[in-house]
Amino acid sequence: MTPDKINLISWITVRTTRSRWEAEFMQQILAAYDIPSRVIDIGIGVYCGQGSQAALQVRSSDQWTALLLLSSPEED
């Protein structure tokens, strides 16, 4: 494969959570807006049976849109 045909995707972590289900929920919100994302397990809890912390990642080109969609509404 030639270098011009290789598509490298740069992933950015936009949120970390204490439990995987939270990250999966945010992933569903982003999917509703056609923003590709992935959930990565982090921490040692994954290996010790204590539940799993997770990180939600998006493509670098979608970083700011994802942050806006996942942010709390501003109050006046």
Structural overview:
The protein has 76 residues and is an alpha+beta fold. The protein has a domain at 9-61. 33% of the residues lie in helices and 26% in strands. The protein has 3 helices and 3 strands. A 3-stranded antiparallel sheet has the order 1-3-2, covered by helices on one side. 13% of the residues are buried. The mean pLDDT is 84.
Fold blueprint:
Blueprint: E1 11-17, H1 20-32, E2 37-42, H2 45-48, E3 53-59, H3 63-70
Antiparallel strand pairs: 1-3, 2-3
Short description:
By secondary structure, this protein is of the alpha+beta class. Helices cover 33% and strands 26% of the residues.
Distance between the amino and carboxyl termini? 54 Å
Q: Proportion of β residues?
A: 25-35%
Number of helices: 3
Average pLDDT level: 84
Strand arrangement within the widest β-sheet reads 1-3-2
Flag low-confidence runs: none
Main β sheet profile: 3 strands, antiparallel
Order of helices and strands: EHEHEH
* Gyration radius from CA atoms, angstroms: 15 Å
| Shape label | globular
Helical percentage: 25-40%
Number of strands: 3
Structural class: alpha+beta
For this entry, give a set of tags.
alpha+beta; 3 helices; 76 residues; 3 strands; single chain
